[in-house]
Design goal:
single chain, four-stranded antiparallel sheet, 3 helices
Length: 124
């Protein structure tokens, strides 16, 4: 049985990339990125976003901060919150329109649901 755990050994195989124009940040941000689809799929499996036997990545949906639109997106990078914390990551997603947004990894499973963000709440 394969084990899918994010370790320092895995992280050392990744590329470090600096991103400009990330939402909510005026400075460039640095993330680990995936050099190939195999390392990207491994990351999804580690986070439980696809089955261990899967060869495909399920789509993710991102709801805009104003709540008015929902777009397909994908993970383009991540970083650890601390060297001791491998259970939660800051994830950098990119929407189909090209917007780059940092999110917490705890939201990713909900973002796989096609209904994610489609219900808009109004006051009143």
């Amino acid at each position: 049985m394969d084990t899918y755990i994010i370790t320092d050994e895995y992280i050392n195989t990744l590329t470090v990339t600096e991103f400009q124009n990330v939402l909510y940040s005026s400075a460039p941000l640095v993330y680990y990125t995936f050099p190939d689809s195999e390392s990207e799929l491994f990351f999804y499996k580690c986070l439980g976003l696809c089955s261990k036997k899967s060869n495909d990545i399920k789509p993710l949906y991102h709801k805009s901060s104003d709540g008015k639109s929902v777009e397909l997106c994908k993970i383009i990078g991540f970083k650890k919150y601390s060297n001791d914390n491998f259970s939660s990551f800051q994830i950098l997603i990119e929407t189909v329109s090209g917007a780059k947004t940092p999110i917490n990894s705890m939201y990713l499973k909900d973002m796989q649901k096609s209904s994610f963000g489609t219900t808009l709440y109004t006051e009143g």
